[in-house]
Amino acid sequence: MAPKNSDWPKLRIRAVELFERPVRFRKPFRFGAVTVEAAPQAFVRVLVDVEGRGEAWGCTAEMMMPKWFDKRPDRSPARTVDGLRVSLHLAARGYGGASWPDTAFGHHAAVRGAHEAACLAAGETRLTAAYGPALLDKAVLDGLLRALGVDFFSGMAGNVAGIDTHLTPDLDGFGLDGFLNGLRPLAAVCLRHTVGLVDDVEGLRALVTSGPHHFKIKLSGDPSADLDRLRAIAAVLDPVLTTYRATLDGNEQCPDTAALAAFLDGLEADPALAAFRRALLYVEQPIARERALDEPLGPVGTRHAVIIDESDESYDAFPRARAMGYRGVSSKSCKGLYKAVLNAARCAAWNGSGSRHFISAEDLTCQAGLAVQQDTALVALLGIGHAERNGHQYVDGFAGAPEEEAEAFLVAHPGFYTREDGRIRLNTGDGSLPAFPLCVPGFAHAAEPRWDSLQPLAPPAAASKESAS
């Protein structure tokens, strides 16, 4: 039975600790206009004091990927990573200063407005601003679940976080408690293999014989080159897989709806892409975030499902996108787990009246350990059958972590990881990840990083200036 408002557990945030670890990729990953060969991973640890249950530590992790949260051309990749540090430091100050008791979601709702304003004043984007609270929220929820002694799936079914419609008034009267209690987590989540812009298409041949049947293909924004590349990919997939599913990631490369329509014209007219068109599920964020929600998709939105990802920078973004003809929105833990849950509730509310809206599961190179486990648990909770999972493709297992850390996760989550060629990696052999090893007290993990192996999160100049003001 889900607890009601007055029964939702209240907590105080006693301490916030921030760390980072450098992660080097085993092959370059190009998306949009940037190619990444290394990036830092952020770690957050929070001490919560739950009324009537005592104190517990919670933790989380996410990559700090350059030039995704902030793609402004005048910002270097390093400067955009520094912006994520700004967001984390300001979020730590905001959440750490919350001495009052509140629900886990209540702390999020209370802090987010002032936090976003501080980030914007520091010159950061709204998507960058969302990053800090997204990590703090995951760590706070982990601590709450640990204090209560319940797993993520049971805790969310009971709405122990106290999620309400304060930030989504369009859901007033929907019945969030019933929605959460009615969710049926998946036993496993299929992997959607990322085909990056510099990935070897021929390398797919060995993969498709025994691996994933879902693929996410990056687009460059050059229609001719993209169609040539899709033909090459289809030539690999079509003869081997009788059925497969694919998504296209525009990474904001189309200047407007007309450019997207021109690309789709070429896709639909090409006989070599007939099977691929039948396999295509949706096109993700083809138009730059600054313009994507300014003009209706019109007929383009009826030809193929189009969803937002980078445009999902606020709680009102999905309803605005829906009004422009978009059919879906991505779930990414780095954008906020509560927003993902509430967007899934919106889909349930809208689809009850005959609409066909959906939430997808995308990745930002979630690394083995906390990040990929917590995001996979969220995807399974929301019933999303397949998820982009590219951390294992571009990073070699627990790269950068001590061997003892990798061993601890392997032992704590049998079936989720495997030992291969002397390295501990995600167990992706059958093209899916099991969710049952994540059903442990806390937010989907029974092992933790070696905290003594991490570096304190660097204090960026912008954060230091903001703190002094």
Explain the overall architecture.
- The chain has 469 residues and is of the alpha/beta class.
- The protein has 2 domains: 5-174 and 457-468, Enolase-like, N-terminal domain (Enolase-like, domain 1), CATH 3.30.390; 176-443, Enolase-like C-terminal domain (TIM Barrel), CATH 3.20.20.120.
- It is built from 17 helices and 15 strands.
- The protein has helices spanning 77-96, 104-121, 126-148, 152-157, 176-182, 204-208, 223-240, 257-269, 274-279, 289-292, 300-303, 317-323, 337-351, 370-381, 391-394, 403-412, 461-468, and strands spanning 11-31, 34-50, 54-63, 188-195, 214-218, 245-249, 280-284, 306-308, 328-331, 358-361, 386-388, 417-420, 423-426, 432-434, 455-456.
Topology:
Elements: E1 11-31, E2 34-50, E3 54-63, H1 77-96, H2 104-121, H3 126-148, H4 152-157, H5 176-182, E4 188-195, H6 204-208, E5 214-218, H7 223-240, E6 245-249, H8 257-269, H9 274-279, E7 280-284, H10 289-292, H11 300-303, E8 306-308, H12 317-323, E9 328-331, H13 337-351, E10 358-361, H14 370-381, E11 386-388, H15 391-394, H16 403-412, E12 417-420, E13 423-426, E14 432-434, E15 455-456, H17 461-468
Parallel strand pairs: 4-5, 4-11, 5-6, 6-7, 7-8, 8-9, 9-10
Antiparallel strand pairs: 1-2, 1-15, 2-3, 4-14, 12-13
Helix pairs in contact: 1-2, 1-3, 1-17, 2-3
